[in-house]
Amino acid sequence: MTIAITGANGHLGRLVLAALKERTEQPLVALVRDPAKASDLAEQGIEVRAFDYDQPEILASALEGVDRLLLISGSAVGQRIPQHTAVINAAKAAGVTFFAYTSLLHADAAKISFVAPEHQETEKLLAASGLSVALLRNTWYTENFAGTAEQALATGTILSSAGEGRVNPATRQDLAEAAAVILAAESPEPGTYELSGDESWTYADLAAALTEKSGKQVSVQNVSKDEHAKILTAASTPEGFVGFLLNTDEAIADGEYGDTNPGVLSKLIGHPTATLKESLPLLGA
Ligand SMILES: NC(=O)c1ccc[n+]([C@@H]2O[C@H](COP(=O)([O-])OP(=O)(O)OC[C@H]3O[C@@H](n4cnc5c(N)ncnc54)[C@H](OP(=O)(O)O)[C@@H]3O)[C@@H](O)[C@H]2O)c1
Question: Which of 34, 72, 73 to mutate for ligand 1's pocket (most ligand atoms within 8 Å of CB)?
Fold first, then answer.
């Protein structure tokens, strides 16, 4: 029973492979865009195969002998529908029996998150594919807040347009463990897994945690979305990143990233998810 992971050179992919190695003796395949960057994986006995979502013609043969596949969503927002379509078609052609996909928490209901539409579309493609599918609806990564924490420690301020909105992130490590548990199960369970951290927090909670850890006073400056955009732009923040930060805060303010769905992720991985306090080193604090 061979398990393959796409995006295996990425942050999440590498953690999923490591978590799989701890759980199963089954053959593992790392599907990567650039095999030269995966020599360390090959040294661990993991078979490395070239796999570029933008080259549909190579994908089905690269999946030869693969029974279970994790498609880690592509990182090129705006290009993911043709990319994911190519992978789904290749999996069907290659006879993959179980297909897992890293989607977004409550992807079907998300209205604000700018990354949601491509996940929604991919989920529809998978529903129509006839494959046995597990949707790993991952919440926002805790690590996404590293930039916010760095800025806060440097300036003493978290600039936010999220108001009192709550967010329920999980670390890549916890989400990777969940993927490994699902992929390595004796009889893998298709279905929709809403995967979030056990606790939710506000930027005020993050400020308090940073203050306690660093000894430096950090507070939140809550502003309107327009004011937030003005301040970021005046500070020469790249346009794309301004859009990302504003969209994230708008979604947090609206509660889109705040539903903790307590217990689904921690039950799967068999331990509580990392708390904000425990995650501070991941945020550079
Ligand atoms: N839940 C969240 O908060 C959150 C945040 C950010 C991203 N994401 C999503 O989750 C995915 C995994 O996160 P991550 O942290 O592991 O991201 P990452 O470190 O950027 O890894 C993405 C991986 O996708 C691979 N990739 C990109 N385009 C590809 C293509 N055309 N063909 C084959 N592989 C391709 C990259 O290959 P190379 O190594 O060759 O570059 C990389 O290994 C992201 O791609 C994104 O869809 C989720």
Answer: 72
Residue whose CB lies within 8 A of the most ligand 1 atoms, among 37, 75, 77, 80, for a mutation test = 75
* Tens-place pLDDT, residues 71-96: 999 999 999 999 999 999 999 999 99
Q: What is the pLDDT of residues 119-135, one digit of tens each?
A: 999 999 999 999 999 99
Do 158 and 218 meet the contact criterion of CB atoms below 8 Å apart? yes
Cβ pair 7, 72 in contact under 8 A: yes
| Torsion over CA: 182, 188, 194, 199 (sign) | negative
C-alpha span between 8 and 19 (Å, rounded) = 12
| Cα distance between residue 115 and residue 12, in whole Å | 17
CA atoms within 13 A on the CB side of 15: 13
Mean pLDDT of 135-150: 96
114/243 Cα distance (integer angstroms): 9
Residue with tokens 């529908």: 81
> What's the pLDDT at 56?
98
Q: Compute φ and ψ for 65, nearest 5 degrees.
A: 80, 0
Domains of the chain from N-terminus onward: 3-142+170-195 (3.40.50.720), 143-166+199-258+275-280 (3.90.25.10)
Q: Which two tokens stand for residue 209?
A: 């945690």
Question: Cα dihedral sign for 201, 203, 207, 213?
Answer: positive
Ligand 1 atom with minimal separation from the 172 CA: 15
Of all atoms in ligand 1, which is nearest to the CA of residue 140?
Answer: 3
